Amino acid sequence: MSHDSDPARSGDSGWIGRSVLRVEDDRLLRGNGRYVDDIALPGAVEAAFLRSPHAHARLESVDVTAALAAPGVVAVWTGDDVADLPAMLNKEELRTPPGLAELLDPLVRMTPMPLLARDKVLYVGQPVAVVLAENRYLAEDALELVDVRYAPLPVLVDPEHALTEDATRLHEDLPDNTAVAVATRVGHPEEAFAGAHAVVSERFEAHRYVASPIETRAISAQIDPYSGRLTVWSGTQTPHRLRDAIAHTLGLESAMVHVIAADVGGGFGQKGILYVEELLIPHAARRLRRPVLWREDRNENLTASSHAREQIHHIELAADAEGQLIAVRDRITVNFGAYNMTGLVVPYNSLCHLLGPYRVPNVHIDVVGVLTNTTFATPYRGAGRPETVFAMERAMDRLAAELGIEPEELRARNLVGPDEMPYATGLVDRSGRPQTYDSGDFPELLRRAVEKADVDQVRARQREGARDGKHVGIGFAMYIEATGLGPFETARIDIAPSGRVRLAIGAPSQGQGHRTSMAQIAADAIGVPLDVIDVVGGDTEATPFGVGTIASRALVNAGNATHRAGRLVREKIVEAAARRLGVAAGGLDLSDGIVRAKEPGGPSISLAELAGKAPLPGTPEPTDGRHGTEISETVHFRPPGFAVASGAHAAVVEVDEHTGEIEILHYVVVHDAGNIVNPMIAEGQVTGGIAQGIGGALYEEMVYGSDGQPRTGTYMDYLVPTSSEIPDLDMDEIFNPSPMNDLGVKGLGEGGAIAPQAVLAGAVEDALRPFGVVVRRGPLSPSRVHALIRTAAGT
């Protein structure tokens, strides 16, 4: 991908827009990272959780007598032992924005999760007891001595069956298994369908899979014996929310809890929510008056950490004779698993991203989130967008086939144009405001993708026929992504006496390169060299207020907070220098960390001299009562709306009809994320997203049996792609700066993961067109592809 300068970016003299090498990588590559498991707390005990082997059962008894007597065991707790602690709710994620509540009146039912199961278990992997011992090995040994008597109950795995009247209710205080429900309508869809020239109606499924980060979840906690203050280290994406949840659970003031997001080996949304373990470990540290550590093993991560993606779409498209879309209807069923953890986040993301870059005047979308006896589902990179893009783009391919129009041409005829920006869809966005695309050039995205994919060459190859049973196909998929979710993010900048700059932000990094990209923003805003900036993220002491790194929001929110704080600090530096040098502020300039008079030969002062030198050694800088001596600033940036990123993917594949194997011959991605702060980091983010998307498209699936037992609980069964399965990517980008923020940036961390499932399904279907194959779900494993061919051929 070319990273040449673009007129939309900052000037060549600044740091923004330059592919600066990531400053964090040297430490991490040398093995000097500090993950939770690396933080040695003297005298720590370790925790291990006893998890339910049943998907649905009553707890008749839990006997821990033998476990308590086991070597090295410090404590064993059951649900009765922590019954005085409130059940867990992801309150912030479950909150419905007032505007959305007023306009659509969605149903959102709360399902508090007990910290340890008491009356019954609702999924395989639910914590039933916790053992705390001198080390993990002894704790695991003691787990085997806990005697639990279960009375199995009927199991629900199919979300559509869970909605029927005769389905067993998971939560007996609820009237049915509906967790959330919301519907919206634009125009007159019924009339539009009745008068349409062509209608396609399909059922598409997005299958369940898991974020599976390299570092599994981990948390440690200890109490300060003097102050009673609790310090928690966690791999969380949302340290401030975790701090507040711990304080609420334990009955503490938030100031008595200090959360530090250590180095994190990937989050992808799975570490962006609350878990009961994150509340129990701090509780154990307070109760035992000893440090406590817990980290999950891989089987726990695959079966008991949050899952994602599982949706069913009953989608219909209506078009006129020219292929113009006139209406869309979709009934979406989202499998929430056993608990409602994040409310409308995923279902509503699916709803308001369904239309993508297309102009659709009449719309009816109905979404329901369903409770089943499976592990709870939460956002995973893309958070409802890959699922809905899969349904919409697959439906576009089916409509193209119905009308006899090439897939790329059908898309081109329906794209919103750049001259229509800002474009109102008629829907309501996730914040409760009218949904508006702030900027973009969707036709140019598609034009470049089509050109790079060389459609004519692919069609010529198809006319030649299969070679040794290998068929070539091409697919296209487009998407939009509303990025920069609020409500705010914090940045604080302090100038140290040494002249170094400390930037603290509320958004932690899980590999996004914040220490580099945020430093670039600060360096430009202040006028200092990049190497004097130290970035701290995810420490609730450094920034008392923050939200976190989720929803493609860090650059938009923390980046703009950094920019504004940097500009204010720059003003303070120049004003302080003006007082020191006796020169009017307007006559000074700040660059490379030195304030200079604009007049040739005028005085100058370095930032270190300004911030650290006092008139006499050991004495403070005198003040006049109006000007402080500290140079610092804190900004809470609140976005006025979403910055809409977009992209077009194209893929050329070769499918072996004998084995069902798929080879990706060419993968094209063209994206628009507004102004780019660090092109190299941006390319890495897009590449990583595509790799995870390819994993979901071709390899990964969390399979459950009808008994609620996960069948893919290890890497022997759950297939994660390696670098050898990911092709070289043909990348391009366009730049449409967002008017929603000062920097003109849009989020891009999730964008790469949104389209791969759809584009590869379309390419495989195109390759297998001679057989009449229709791809309605993934992953497209060799066995599934081979079965599709056999079924279509009637063999």
Gyration radius, rounded: 28 Å
Uncertain runs are 2-12, 614-618, 624-628
- Helix coverage percent: 25-40%
Major sheet details: 7 strands, mixed
Strand proportion, as a percent range, falls in 25-35%
Distance between the termini: 45 Å
The counted number of beta strands is: 31
**DSSP helix count?**
21
Q: Could you report the average pLDDT, rounded to the nearest whole number? A: 94
Strand order of the largest sheet: 3-6-1-14-11-12-13
Q: Which structural category fits the helices and strands?
A: alpha+beta
Characterize the overall form: globular
Walk me through this protein's architecture.
This protein is an alpha+beta fold. Helix content is 28%, strand content 25%. The protein contains 21 helices and 31 strands. The strands form eight sheets. Strands 3-6-1-14-11-12-13 form a seven-stranded mixed sheet, with helices on both faces. The longest helix has 28 residues, at 554-581. 55% of the residues are buried. Residues 2-12, 614-618 and 624-628 have low confidence and may be disordered.
Short description:
With 795 residues, the protein is an alpha+beta fold.
Layout of helices and strands:
Elements: H1 25-29, E1 45-51, E2 57-63, H2 65-68, E3 73-78, H3 91-94, H4 98-104, E4 107-108, E5 120-121, E6 127-133, H5 136-143, E7 147-152, H6 159-162, E8 178-186, H7 189-194, E9 198-206, E10 209-210, E11 218-223, E12 230-234, H8 239-250, E13 257-261, H9 276-288, E14 292-295, H10 298-304, E15 307-308, E16 311-319, E17 325-337, H11 345-353, E18 363-371, H12 385-403, H13 407-414, E19 423-428, E20 434-437, H14 442-453, H15 455-464, E21 470-483, E22 489-495, E23 501-505, H16 514-526, E24 533-537, H17 554-581, E25 588-591, E26 594-597, E27 604-606, H18 607-612, E28 632-637, E29 643-656, E30 662-672, H19 679-698, E31 729-734, H20 756-767, H21 782-793
Parallel strand pairs: 1-14, 12-13, 17-18, 23-24, 30-31
Antiparallel strand pairs: 1-6, 2-5, 2-7, 3-6, 4-8, 8-18, 9-16, 10-15, 11-12, 11-14, 16-17, 19-20, 21-29, 22-23, 22-28, 25-26, 26-27, 29-30
Helix pairs in contact: 8-9, 11-12, 12-13, 12-20, 16-17, 19-20
